[in-house]
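ENCODED BACKBONE
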Amino acid sequence: MVTVFTSDALDAHERARRDEPQSDLEIWRFRNVSNSLAWKGRMFISPGLRSATKASLDRFDIVHLHEYRSFQNLVVAPLARARLVPVVIQAHGSLSASEGHGFWKKLYDAFLGQKVLDCTARAIALSLDEAELYTQIGVPSNKVEVVPNALSPPPSIPRDSGRLFRNSYAIDREAGVVTYLGRLHQSKGIDLLLEAAAAMAKTSRRFALLLAGPDDGAGSHLKKRAERLGISSLVRFTGFLEEEARLSALQASDVVVIPAFTGFPITILEAYLLERPVVTTERSDRLDWLTDAVARTTRFEAGHLANAIQELLLNPQLRSELGAAGKRQVLERFTWDTIGKRYEKLYQECIDEARIAREPPIQCSQSCP
């Protein structure tokens, strides 16, 4: 049985239902003090969490914490350690203090972060770069494990879903579609993608740029930026997309572009399952398999990014080859059947170590050496 402790914040205004039926999960949603604070400041403060954790820890074999800087981690990690329940932490690309609320992140790291890290048996990194960040903040390297993201193959997508998606956003059937799929946040390098699109508009074949994802503070800025660059007619803002619509957007795409990322975006795996090649830049974390055999990685400059996108838009055979090679990698390395076994092994190692720590020391007689 997996028990999930989480908050009830759905967005800045709405709270999630507490009566979600789940066959294999027990979900506890704790009320946030402020949804607005949770959504805008990433501060999910749920006072009811402490008492529930105290009452429940004895039936848990292991605790898996998600994100790095959180109220939940500060509450749960010390309580779990006191009961000798092993704790695993997974930052999901949130370790860096250089972007977004940098002052508050550094303050947390200076006064609170180490208290959480001292309670952890393992720290899970999504990439080699994230593994290095863990060691920089004080986690011993022998406690850091690189475990990439995984996904299950999506449900069957109707063959015409891409065409229908294009039609819904008034994209010509002959136009190339360049897609960014993710949060619209200043850290994602979307400004650079707009600059690259502006350069492409002067020389490239017809194309549309899809910016697909929820507004995380940069939406208004990006719309104004597109206007200033004179490419508003080429850009489509979709807002948040549910799974079916998200996959349809990828189906409609020729190239998926993620200018900058930390960790290991699920978007990359989803794109390759649909055989859509990915373009990124050196500003992103390193993924050992994201080579020229499946993708294009350029310098973080508009001209270089534009050239890489144009290369793929103008070469359908190359797009097909890269997309097919990426799909093979995903199916061989990143399904839950494969990655799930790595989690099970890691969990069991932590549980065994905790069991040994709980065993009383051997009592020696006077004759013991």
In short: The two ends are 45 Å apart (CA to CA). The CA atoms of residues 99 and 187 lie 7 Å apart. The longest strand covers residues 2-7.
